[in-house]
Design brief:
- This protein has helices spanning about 5-20, 25-30, 55-65, and strands at about 30-45, 50-55, 75-90, 95-105, 110-125, 130-140.
- By secondary structure, the protein is of the alpha+beta class.
- It has a single domain (about 5-140), classed as Roll (Nuclear Transport Factor 2, Chain: A).
- The chain has a six-stranded mixed sheet.
- A hairpin with a 6-residue loop joins strand 5 (about 110-125) and strand 6.
Length: about 150
């Protein structure tokens, strides 16, 4: 069964929804065993890229399990994603999606503000019965995300 571009867009959006709902098992179910998740940004101050997070599937799972022990900002996060493009590679077995992402934080008083902005660069295996993320790199434009934001964006 061929995975359409619409299916891939829905897949990316689903990955945001499960994180918004704190459904970490649901997020991991979207990831292949060889999954690699990174958050990076470019620092003009030091003239190079900074890696904020670099985890494999087991690392993501351990992070999700330990979240109750972390200091977290009060309120809720909402991810707004817009898939810009999808490119098929390796004879159509892999799809690469580029997605604009804005993360909005709403505090307990109901005030919302942009917490971070960036782009997902996803690699998705489309040879399996359902698509699976094999890598996701979030390239942030925002360089200061503060404390209490250990949940992958």
């Amino acid at each position: 069964m061929r995975v359409s571009d619409d299916d891939l867009r829905a897949f990316v959006y689903r990955s945001c929804v499960v994180l918004d709902q704190h459904d970490y098992a649901g997020y991991l179910a979207l990831c292949a065993d060889e999954m690699r998740y990174q958050i990076t940004y470019h620092s003009p101050e030091i003239g190079r890229d900074v890696i904020v997070m670099n985890l494999d599937h087991a690392g993501l799972s351990a992070l999700f399990e330990s979240l109750p022990d972390h200091i977290q900002l009060p309120g809720e996060l909402m991810r707004h994603a817009s898939v810009y493009g999808i490119v098929r590679k390796r004879n159509g077995t892999v799809a690469e999606a580029t997605t604009s992402l804005v993360i909005i934080r709403t505090d307990p008083e109901g005030l919302s503000h942009v917490l971070a902005a960036g782009h997902y660069h996803d690699t998705v295996d489309v040879t399996r019965p359902r698509p699976l993320l094999t890598s996701r790199t979030l390239r942030l434009q925002t360089r200061d995300i503060g404390i209490g934001t250990e949940v992958p964006f």
